[in-house]
Queue: 3 jobs
Job 1
Amino acid sequence: MSQAPDNLQIESWQRFFAMQANNSAWDLSETSLDVLNQPELLDAAHASAWHWRAVGTELHHMRSVMLLALVHARMNMGPSAWAYAEKMKNFFEAKADTPDWEMAFVHSIYALAAHANGKMDVFGMAHQQAASSLASLKDPEDQAVVEKTFQLISKL
């Protein structure tokens, strides 16, 4: 966890709350089995997105969209999960410098959102892309982090 700012600048506090909410939402999304009874998960994801929109870069904003896609998919909010997933996938695929670990997240979350929205044909292709992306990660730490999200697919 990051330390609270030692100043009164609103931007510092916005960034602090964006990171806190982001980390909380990711932790809850990966570990909670009964996400439908975890309203703080949805609250944290949206709070993070709101704060990043205020002080973050476009990359921060799109990472918050990725988190929203994941959380909405986990909470069976198919249409909104799909809308967020399409937006983040288009952004990250268009970026030439998207790291391999981030694309593995994109494919995993896209698969989850497709499933939540009943797009089973897309789900199958996205699941294959996610598995391939995960397998191609060279850094074991990156692989372990992405694996937590990828494993959510097997629980569907």
Job 2
Amino acid sequence: MQITINSQFDSGNIEVVDASDPANIRLKVRKDAESDFLQWFNFSASGLSGKACTFVIENASATTYPKGWENYHVATSCDRQSWTRTVSEYNGGTLSWTVDADHDQLWFAYFAPYTTEQHADLVSAAATANGVAHEVLGLTHLGRPIDYLRVASLNDQGLAVDDSHTNASVVKPQLWIIARQHPGESMAEWFMEGFLDRLLDEDDATSHALRHLADIHVVPNMNPDGSFLGHLRTNALGVNLNREWADPSAERSPEVYFVKKRMQHTGITAALDVHGDEALPYNFIAGTEGVAEWTAARNQQLVDVKHTWSSINPDFQDRVGYPINQAGNANLTICSNQLAATFGCLAMTLEMPFKDTDNAPRPAAGWSPERSIRLGASFIDVIYLTLNDRLLSKS
């Protein structure tokens, strides 16, 4: 049976050079449309049963983050429900892996995908919960909805307080969590699934208590066009959304334009922007120490968040991360920096790995959807324990 490679589906990405030899199936990663970013791949291979098959991505060294392939192993599934890791090798030029297939068809991806259908299910389920209002803030270039969820605070009877049309929403703490500006960072939406599922669990005491304190605003997927198209980093127009926050436009970056417009309406007390990092094998937070408005109080808030998270979930750590910018040197086109400078708030970027975590490795699965979900759920504790006194109190 001939081997067939297919990527013509939601979030698919691969180009076939030659699939005639099972021992040398030659592939290339396709660039994001209208840009030079490339790293994300997602494809199926059929006709594998009983064959020893070696897959080779020939342009691995030409991808955006070639160091991302070092100690990286390919996400693999036979049913698109459960994902494990297949050992791969990067030789400085190509990325390759071999499977002795027990199944006729296998799926391979840079990370377990989070599809448009999964996104629709996530938003629909959340929108039916107590006190959640769903709104389409605008449309992307290709006409996809920019989904937004406002999770209203609760009163003492556990009922949602709808004060969105009063000035109470201005003074009440406003928490914003957005994810997947870079569509290939699919672990970000797995994180959001875990966060939302726990936040909206009416039997979860911590979530219930948190919702007494604040309104919470959620955009589970900032880049639905790029996600569907199988992009690594850009929207349908080839625009990196996380470089648009200083001056977004409805024509070039509607995803940022409409979300920022709503942020300006609600104000922000604290914000988390959820991402994935190709090279570093850790979960970590990048702060906004480079903004001119950085203060000792805000620095203590950031330290407390990182320390608390590493204490309650060993998958998170606070030792390794990005270099810290000096005050006044922040790139204000980046979301967290722009929000910190504009709103005077604690704004953070969470980075999760495409690889396994060096501080808490689990080689069979690596960093996985399940671990992303649990990290998202644990952020509920982080907000409640850390931000309750320092950030959400009105004193």
Job 3
Amino acid sequence: MIRKIIKIDTDKCNGCGLCVNACHEQAIGLRGGKAVLLRDDYCDGLGDCLPACPMNAISFEEREALAYDEDAVLLNKKNWPVQIKLAPVSAPYFHNADLLIAADCTAFSHPNFYQEFIRGKVTLVGCPKLDAVDYSQKLTEIFLQNDIKSITLTRMIVPCCGGLEYAVKMAVEASGKKIPVNVVTIDTKGNMV
């Protein structure tokens, strides 16, 4: 199909990577010190990368390209590391993200956890009992520095998971943002309650 898509002039590109951070679809990467369009089907053609480029190396062109594939983009929005205490407070994958904060045990307790909860979300995991930390400060920083669309919290029915729920709610409150939080509780047999 013929459609509008970005074009990167590698002669002008200085390899700063600002366009990589600006691209919410992760269509742009760095190779050999230069920005490149990694996949046509990840580029939505909206050009959030254009104003980020200090070298004016990015422009639009109309050409034969794969159609934008939003489902593929959502599946690709993976983050690493996933442990709350190891996660950076600011990263491109947090921008406009639907965030899943999962207690460690939930993914192993509930069948179809990936399909029902992880798919299409940026995932953070933790266990307040095992980590023996207060996650609220780290989560507050993540919420303050990023535009989080929504939060799904999966927790077990056991009392120790209450600490994770408390930390999420305190962090949202401390951030001063109105981020919707959906809490899903899973029992020890893997059922949602």
